[in-house]
Structures are given as C-alpha cells and as structure tokens.
From TrEMBL:
Shown segment, full-protein numbering: 65 to 329 of 330
Domain called DAHP synthetase I/KDSA: residue spans: 20-265
UniProt EC number: 2.5.1.54
Entry protein name: 3-deoxy-7-phosphoheptulonate synthase
Alphabetical UniProt keywords: Transferase
GO MF terms, alphabetically ordered: 3-deoxy-7-phosphoheptulonate synthase activity
C-alpha cells in the first residue's frame, strides 16, 4: 500500500514553485470560493499573500448542490486565476470535476483539487494518477478514513505520489448549526497511517464564517500541515458560499493566531 507509513515511513514533502508542503512545513492556501473576475481574484490573492498564504485557491468549475446555482466561469476563470497567481508569485490550486477536463486544467494549474463529491470518482483519480502534479484530495463528506486512504491509493497506484489529504468536514447527526462536522480526530489519525501531508478546510466544514477561525485553529493545534480558507471582500455579494467567507482582515487575524499556535506546539 503506497500511501501507508509502513511503505514510506518518512513524511512526503511536496515542492511546488512557491510552496513546500508536508513535514514540518505549514502551508496556507486561501482565496475566493469561485473565480469571479480577473481583478477580484488578484485582489483576493494580494490580501491572502500579505497574510502569508503561498497558494491561491479558487474554483472555475463549481460542483453546486443545485444545478441552477452558478456553475463557475470555466476556462475564463482558469485564465484569470493563472494570471493572478503569476502576478503575485503564488501557486494555483483549483478543482477538477471531470476526466475530460484533465488536460485543460493541467495546462493552467499547479495543484489539482478533487472535491468532497468526487473523492470516489475513480476514473478521475486514475487520470490524475498519470499526472506528475500535486493533487489535493478532499475527504468525501460521508467517507471513512479508510475510504479516503483508498481513494489516495488510486492516485498513487497510477504513479503520482504527490498527494495532499484534506479533512473538510463530514456529515454527522447534527448539521443544523454548521454545514458539516470538522473531524479534528482525523488529522492525527491520518498522520499515523500515511506519510502524505494532512491539511484542513474549516470554511466548508463550518459553512458559517464566525465558526471558521475557531475550527481552523483547532485543526492547526491538532497538527494540520496546512489550511485552506475562503475569503471575500464583500461576502454578502459573493458568487458562491459568501456565508462562510472570512474578510481579508479576519483572515489576517487568523494567520497571526496560527503562527502563535504553531510556535506553542
Ligand atoms: C471547494 O473547495 O471549493 C469545495 C467545493 O469544497 P468541497 O469539495 O470540500 O465542498
């Protein structure tokens, strides 16, 4: 089993043009939920970079719960995202939904993102296994830890061992006050089982901006090697998921607190 610590005892360290992910390193990935416009993604990138982020996130292909919700700006979004990442000297991470888009997304991004809904899209995982490019694999919202590790194995089996596992909240019996339940315990458990970097997304777990910071800090205290966080300068008018977006100022405060926790642990 390639993802197992028995197979590879040392932490896997992944190097991208502007980041080192895994081991003792801590990587901040942040940006808007979706790419709204070239100027907006660049402004959000500037804000997160100033707070210490090295990876600019943003979706051009959005897997919305409703087919009538905004589905993303597609290739125009990829272009704007790439231009902002280049201008700011940041890495780009963006979600891929479909095997047919692998080459298109590959031509723009530094890191592929597989979302919670596609964690067990084995055709997509196999296609990404043939690429020599990092993949952020988000835990399926109803997936067990072993399901996540087996999904990672599909990528590794194809020859791509640049995998980053992301806890982003799971469905539990009480999802009235938060969108999902951040499974903090998954962070140290996964670190004991696999050598891949383990990062967390408190934005999608919380679904509500006021809970994002405490959950993100809990993930850092539990040993997460990175965080993905959504920001927006005008959350009420965000194209997608404004309710969970931190403002740039809130993100800066979070980043400062993360540094304090990292020094303490
Ligand atoms: C995202 O990060 O934009 C996203 C849709 O996340 P998830 O797959 O965790 O819902």
């Amino acid at each position: 089993i390639k993802s197992s610590r028995d197979f590879h005892p040392e932490d896997t360290i992944i190097k991208t043009p502007h980041s080192v992910i895994g081991g003792q390193h801590f990587t901040l990935m942040a940006g808007p939920d979706s790419i709204e416009s070239p100027a907006h993604v660049e402004a959000m990138g500037k804000a997160v970079k100033a707070a210490g982020a090295t990876v600019l996130r943003g979706g051009a292909f959005k897997p919305r719960t409703s087919p009538y919700s905004f589905q993303g700006n597609g290739e125009a979004g990829l272009k704007a995202h790439r231009a902002a990442a280049d201008a700011l000297e940041m890495d780009m991470v963006t979600e891929i939904l479909d095997t047919r888009d692998v080459d298109l997304v590959d031509s723009y991004t530094d890191i592929f993102q597989v979302g919670t809904r596609n964690m067990q899209n084995f055709a997509l995982l196999k296609a990404l296994g043939k690429k020599q490019k990092p993949v952020v694999l988000k835990r399926g919202m109803s997936a067990t830890i072993d399901d996540l590790l087996n999904a990672a194995e599909y990528i590794a089996a194809g020859g791509n061992d640049q995998i980053i596992l992301m806890e982003r909240g799971i469905r539990t019996y009480d999802n009235k006050y938060t969108r999902n339940t951040l499974d903090v315990s998954a962070i140290p458990v996964l670190q004991s089982l696999t050598h891949y970097p383990i990062v967390a997304d408190a934005s999608h777990a919380a679904g509500v901006s006021k809970f994002v910071t405490p959950l993100a800090l809990a993930a850092v205290a539990a040993g997460a090697q990175g965080l993905m966080t959504e920001i927006h300068d005008d959350p009420a008018h965000a194209f997608v998921d404004g309710a969970q977006a931190l403002t740039p100022d809130e993100f800066k405060l979070l980043a400062d607190k993360i540094r304090q926790i990292r020094e303490a642990i």
